[in-house]
Amino acid sequence: MPLPVRAIASGRLTALRDRAGLSKAELARRIGVSTRMVFFYEGGKHTPTPQRLQKMAQALRCEVEDLTGVRRGQECLVDLRFAAGLTLDQATELLRRTTVGRDLHLSAPRLSAVEQGRSVHGRNWRDPETVGRLPAELAKVYDVPIRMVVDAWMRTRPHDPVPVRPGRRTSKEASSPAEATWRSLNERQRIYLGEALRDERMTETEMWMRRVHHLPVPRPAEWRKLPLALRAPAQVVGYTRLQERLRRNGVHDPGVGATLHALKRRGLLMTSVDVFHHPAAGEVTRIRVEMTRRGRAVARAGLGESAEQKPAAPLLSEWLWGVLARVAGAGPDGLDRDALSGRAPFHLGVGYKNGSGGRPSRGFIDDVSILASDGSYVIGYRWKLTPLGLRHVIEYASEYRRRYPKIDTTVLSVVAEESS
User: What residue stretches are annotated with the HTH cro/C1-type domain (predicted)?
Assistant: First the structure.
């Protein structure tokens, strides 16, 4: 059961203070306490308030989780409140100004009970619909995405029903201009546009990885131009990655015909031509395509992502759901660590964060060490579902199947049976 407050992990404050080059007296001055109190903090005899914990993290140039020892992707509700620098009374006061706060007659003891995973008694607390509106308000008060609150809620209260179910799109949303445009496209045009969006995302991930490894990165105006077709025999130069994507969907033309021109006329794609040196064919003319902002919006709407981005739907993108489904499908043995590349661990893995200043990952998977048979040394690491990751898969699998029917989830029924 999570504690009502977050203590500083043993030894962390001293180590971080030494790393920052601050004396006890200087740290005390910066956070507004006595030197004796800093001594108590380091000895574990006192716990700082959320505001002082925030000031301490700022003074030490670290994150709050560096002080508390809570790994990224394992935050509970109390961690979100402490990270926001709010006491129970302050958070309660802000929540009582909302409709759901008043409907639940929220008080500091009740919010504390929520944070500790205890039963909460009182009017409307047995109504799932009313309680399900609370995470959205907590997200506003703590200034975090609602998915962080939903994940923290499920970690804090693992035996409660999930607080938020993905909302179905309304008729108004279904008739948005982007979806209307998608419906007006024929099947071939939809394949082109959808695969162009996926290829752009993969290229974006590659550019991100280049930055991580301090390699040169072209300007977005350049790398967003995706190679589509080469004016040379395919048996010599092969197919571009985008052509390979189209071919897997049954489109085997060179990729520069009527379909491309139709998408260009509608302002969904732009085309350009350049010449590059191919090791087998020499100078080769290359046709490149670039998605317009409208084209991305239409593709996202057609792939069901417009509803996914709603705060009330704490779901993953199609790409990340595919990754999570792979880990889940690997079963108890897990997935080899090298099988996941790119940014997936930064969005899903415990201990990761989505870039500098970004949000912690969902904490749905963790790389677990595999010991030798005698337990004397580590022979490797495997990606496995965390308890929250498993529950997310079980709770939302049917909704994911509806939204992303191309993702193979046949093994997930076995996962659900084994966990029950």
Answer: 13-67
Domain boundary among 156, 181, 206: 156
User: Does 296 lie in the same domain as 271?
Assistant: yes
Predicted confidence (pLDDT) per residue in 321-356, tens digit:
989 999 998 888 888 888 886 788 888 998 887 765
Do residues 126 and 251 share a domain? no
Q: Band the pLDDT of 307: cuts 50, 70, 90.
A: very low
Assign 349 to helix, strand or coil.
Answer: strand
Q: Is 150 found in the same domain as 17?
A: yes
Q: How far apart are CA 235 and CA 303, in angstroms?
A: 33
Co-location of 325 and 376 in the same domain? yes
Q: Is residue 28 part of a domain?
A: yes
Reduced to 3 states (helix: H, G, I; strand: E, B; else coil), residue 307 is helix
- Assess if residue 175 is contained within a domain: no
Please check whether residue 207 lies inside any domain of the structure.
yes
Q: Are 121 and 221 contained in the same domain? A: no
CB neighbours of 74 closer than 8 A, spacing ≥ 6?
155, 350, 363
Confidence of residue 266 (pLDDT cuts 50, 70, 90): very high
In angstroms, how far apart are the furthest CA atoms of the chain?
78
**H-assigned helices in 61-118:** 64-68, 77-83, 88-95, 99-103, 108-115
Co-location of 340 and 274 in the same domain: no
pLDDT digits (tens, 9 = 90+) for 206-244: 887 777 677 888 888 899 999 998 888 888 888 889 888
Burial class of residue 371 in the structure, from the number of CB atoms within 10 Å of its CB (0-12 exposed, 13-18 middle, 19+ buried): exposed
pTM exceeds 0.85 for this model? no
Amino acid at 400: Y
Q: Are 364 and 395 in contact (CB under 8 A)?
A: no
Residues 22 and 90 both lie in one domain: yes
Q: Residue 306 above 60 pLDDT?
A: no
Q: Is residue 413's pLDDT more than 70?
A: no
Return the closest-CA partner of residue 165 out of 388, 358, 7, 314.
Answer: 314
Residue among 361, 320, 332 at smallest CA distance from 145: 361
* Residue range(s) defining the domain that contains residue 384: 315-419
Extract the tokens encoding 14. Answer: 């001293």
**Does residue 149 share a domain with residue 17?**
yes
What is the tally of structural domains in the chain? 3
Q: Which residues contact 191 (CB under 8 A, 6 or more apart)?
A: 246, 249, 250, 251
